[in-house]
Amino acid sequence: MTTGATELENLVLSSIVAAEKIGFLSVASATLVFYDYILTFDQEVKYFWTGRWTLSRALFFLNRYLSNSIAIVLSYLMTGFRSCEAATRAIFFMEYVALTIIQGIIVLRIWYMFAERRRIARLLVVSTYLAALVTAATEIGVLVPGIAPIKTPPGMTEHCTAPPIDKLWRIYLPNLILHTVLFAATTWPVIEQRRSTSPLMLRLVRDGGIFYIAVFAASAFTTIASFRSNDLSIILPAMFSNFLLAVSTVSVSRLMFSIRSLASALSMDSIALLSAAELSRVRWRRGAHSGELIVEIDSAEPESEPEDRDGLELGDMFSPPRLPRAAPQIYTTRVGVYHDELLPGYHNVYTDRERNRRTKTRSRAISVTSAWAGIP
């Protein structure tokens, strides 16, 4: 009898500590989402409020508002007794929907990066995505109905919590594996074409790497904590604080802003920018000034070659022969100065020297010059 009372007392105390941690981490996650929304609202208006509707644009708004709403609402629901039981179970289903949208954005990004000839790679990525969704949905359907919340004594805490389940890690492990596969698919084109990799591809891989580090850390925290079923203070905050959802939502939003800002700076469509074929054609280099991009576009030259001048005599220098008037040739160079949108974790990855090369202004200038061959 004494042993049973002691175990119950320890369970209640552990639940109280875990509930407090859930509350703190939930508020921190909601604050992260809201703060990021305020910081990036101007970019949302600039890059996504106008233009034609595409699948990527629709997924952006779903992630931007549905995922953010889920993170904030669930953080609020976990603070009351009346809605505690419903929120405990709803958090898994709503988080599943939000993570599905986030992962779909990354899959679509990789789909555009791979050319149509890479059908096997596309099929592998999509198959992994669908397998992860089906596995997670199956585990949620099996495990979540068995979760019954424990209400702590009134006056001690305003939260409720749920007992740990030994197999809860099965819900989060597919997410961790999927993001690893997606990151490998992102870096594969660079590894395959490492000798002639486009700077745009390197930029996209850099952004994808920062995104992967942020999401992988959050996924690893949640997955590893789900194995600690005997420690309520670890497993419960990881499961019910929406930390994984908040980090994933913010990271994928920053990733899409980075793509749109670069496409805008280069006067390109974002889908064309992600195309592997387009990336191999675009040639650009850094200009002499900080943040300056010089994009080289093929000139409209006539197909005929100039006449051979090997027979030029010394006297011709004083009375040069009259050459036929050639068609006008237009050479175009686009110089774009853009502000490199920084993703979460950028300051921890890049050195001060690299960060100093970024500029705070964005402008574009197009110069066109015409040259006529011959002397009138």
TrEMBL record:
Residues 25-66 form the DUF6533 domain. The keyword Transmembrane helix applies. It holds the Pfam family DUF6533. Keywords: Membrane, Transmembrane, Transmembrane helix. InterPro entries: DUF6533. The chain crosses the membrane at residues 12-38, 59-78, 90-111, 123-148, 168-188, 209-228, 234-257. Residues 299-310 have a biased composition (Acidic residues). It comes from the Eukaryota. This is DUF6533 domain-containing protein. It comes from Fomitopsis schrenkii.
